[in-house]
Every structure is written in C-alpha cells, then in structure tokens.
C-alpha cells in the first residue's frame, strides 16, 4: 500500500524538514475513546491508490465507532492528480482552527512532515495521530521526528508496530494497532452471473481456471514478487491445462524495466496475461469477481489490502505468510506459503536507507502445489481449500 510519491526528499530538504519537525515534538497522549469527537482525517481521497483506500476504510471505521469525521483531501497539496471523485470529501482550504477535537493524518512520515510544516500551525492545536504504513522489519531512521510530533501513531498491523519498536524502542508507548475493517467497504457479491459477466468484460474464457495477481510497480517489483507468481503458475499448470493467470500491473511507468522482466517471464505461454493498467481504470472489482483464486508471493506486506479484500469476497488466497496479520493468515480461505528470510535487495532502491532489513523468499514449489489443490477443489467451493 505504500505506493506514494517518490523515493524521498533531497538530502538538504530532508534535513530541514526533520529539523522543523523536531521542534514540533510533543509527549505521547491523545484520546483512547473517539465517541463524539470531531475528527479531521487527512488523506489522499481523490486519487486511486492504496493509501487512499486505507484512508477511506479508516474513515468508515471511525464513523462506526461514533466519531464525527471530516475527510480532508490532500492529494493536491502533495502534487497528486485527482482521478477519483468522492462527494463527501472537503479541501484543506475549508479547515478552520478550533473546528475539530482531533487531527488524524493517514500518510507516511515524509509526506506527513511536508503537510505538517506546510499548513497553518493553528490547525494542529489539538491531539495529532499519524497513521503510518511500512513493509520491512525495520523502519527508516528518519521517521523519528515525524513519530515524535504525534501524540499517537496508529498502524494497521502488529508487524508494522514491531518494526517501529525495533528501530525506536523509546517511542513504543505512542503506538496503537488498528487493523483496517475491510468489511465496512463491501464489494459486489460473488455469484455465478456476476462471475460470468466480469469475465466477459475482461475478455476471459468462462471455463478457464483463473488465477489473479495484482500490484503497483511503485510498491516495487522485488517486494511484490509477481515473477515468482508466474513461475508458480507455470509449475502448477502444464500447457494443456485450461488455466489463465491475470496479472494486473499498476503504475508500470515507475519501473519500465520491471514490466519488461514480467513480460519476458510470461513469454511463450499465452495463458499468462500481463495487464498494464492505468490509475483511471484501476478498479479491481471485476478481477475479483472473475477469478477463482488470488495469488500473492510477496516478500513483505505492511497490511495486505488486496489479500484482505479477496478473502472478504469469499476467494481462496494463496500468499506468503510472513509479515501478515492474524486476521488474514488465520482466515479459513487463506493458504499460507512458507518462506525463508533473506536480506532486502531492491532494484528500485526504495529501501536502500534501511540497514539490516530482511524480507521473505517464498517457497514457489509449495505455492504451485497449493494452486493445483485449489484448482482440483474448484467445483466444491463450500469446503474451502485445504491448508495442509
């Protein structure tokens, strides 16, 4: 879900930003009960990206808990184009000091810092909560000032909270784990008519066994690891088997070499479809409706929103177990893929500044066998796939 703007600020600008944030440090605190509180929730609401979907899920969760939520879109302030219309969203320009009891910022520290130092200080004279996401077992050292300028920091998984604690043990008392409530934003119901209609729209054979993988190149090719998913598909289904692997690749322009690698991995097998998808057409709902199983051989996940969404729709999910929260990993339809931990190597250099970090190398042979088993049981959906 961490698919935001850039690989960071220039060193001088970053040092200046960290210095300004350090002056805004505050002690841990903030409310534990949100009932009746007026909340300004800053997020990327007008752009189709994982962080935007996470902010919307959080808004619904806060509302369900009795908070009075104003969704404040900051896509423009961060230089992002608007490609999604939400009628209930307000611009930053409408904010007034004293209008809210609590500010929650659903951005990662670099963008949090930009926003915190750009906007009028009067807007932040209430408790501030930062909602931060990350994918490795350590976080960047330059997160300290952003964390210290929040009364609390929320994360959607224990894994992220543990990564922050491992890097900054002295800041652990600010952390709260609040998983996304995916069921508060339900998708279309999976029925046979809906499945067939979605396959028609996607140009997929109504009788094929359809495997779905979806990711953003901004989340890095190495971390999302779709080439391993392609290899698992090839091992699971010999050429004569009527199976299809649909791989949705968003933001391919962020790493053209990565798209070329995927196309090379898929070459020679017309059943493997690498679909380079623009943000304007990025809705995944048809793909969920059409497919028979979701496959994610990621090396690490901060939360795993696509996996959670697929499970919520009743889809079997085969995915790397490491880094996932229990709500996903313990689901009856989830098949956990074992892995070994290795040093992080990322050709897109997003994680170069995180010393000593590790992620998972999933067992492709296990994943291939799991795909075969799910395909064999595809005509008995009530039993669910076996985890053994």
Automatic annotation (TrEMBL):
Keywords: Transferase. Gene3D superfamilies: Glycogen Phosphorylase B. SUPFAM superfamilies: UDP-Glycosyltransferase/glycogen phosphorylase. One of its GO terms (molecular function) is transferase activity. It comes from the Bacteria. PANTHER family: PUTATIVE-RELATED. This is Glycosyl transferase. It comes from Chelatococcus reniformis.
């Amino acid at each position: 879900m961490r698919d935001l703007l850039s690989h960071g600020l220039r060193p001088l600008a970053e040092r200046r930003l960290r210095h300004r944030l350090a002056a805004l440090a505050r002690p841990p605190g903030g409310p534990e009960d949100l009932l009746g509180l007026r909340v300004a929730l800053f997020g990327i609401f007008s752009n189709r990206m994982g962080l935007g979907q996470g902010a919307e899920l959080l808004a619904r969760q806060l509302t369900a808990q009795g908070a009075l939520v104003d969704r404040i879109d900051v896509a423009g302030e961060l230089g992002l184009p608007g490609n999604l219309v939400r009628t209930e969203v307000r611009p930053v320009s409408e904010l007034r000091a004293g209008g809210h009891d609590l500010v929650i910022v659903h951005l990662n520290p670099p963008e949090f810092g930009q926003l915190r130092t750009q906007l009028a200080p009067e807007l932040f004279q209430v408790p501030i909560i930062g909602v931060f996401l990350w994918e490795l077992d350590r976080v960047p050292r330059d997160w300290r000032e952003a964390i210290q300028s929040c009364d609390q920091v929320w994360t959607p998984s224990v894994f992220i909270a543990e990564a922050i604690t491992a890097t900054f043990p002295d800041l652990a008392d600010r952390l709260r784990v609040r998983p996304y409530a995916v069921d508060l934003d339900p998708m279309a119901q999976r029925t046979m008519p809906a499945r067939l209609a979605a396959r028609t729209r996607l140009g997929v054979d109504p009788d094929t066994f359809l495997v779905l993988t979806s990711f953003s190149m901004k989340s890095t090719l190495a971390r999302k690891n779709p080439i391993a998913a392609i290899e698992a598909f090839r091992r699971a289904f010999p050429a004569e088997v009527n199976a299809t692997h649909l791989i949705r690749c968003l933001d391919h322009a962020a790493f053209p070499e990565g798209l070329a690698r995927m196309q090379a991995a898929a070459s020679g097998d017309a059943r493997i479809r690498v679909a380079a998808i623009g943000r304007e057409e990025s809705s995944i709902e048809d793909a969920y409706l059409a497919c028979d199983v979701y496959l994610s051989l990621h090396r690490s996940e901060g939360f795993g929103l696509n996996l959670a969404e697929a499970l919520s729709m009743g889809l079997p999910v085969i995915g790397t177990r490491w880094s996932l929260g229990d709500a996903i990993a313990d689901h009856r339809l989830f098949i956990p893929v074992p892995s070994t931990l290795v040093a992080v190597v990322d050709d897109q250099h997003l994680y170069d500044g995180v010393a000593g970090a590790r992620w998972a190398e999933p067992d492709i042979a296990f994943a291939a066998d799991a795909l075969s088993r799910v395909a064999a049981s595809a005509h008995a959906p009530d039993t669910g796939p076996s985890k053994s």
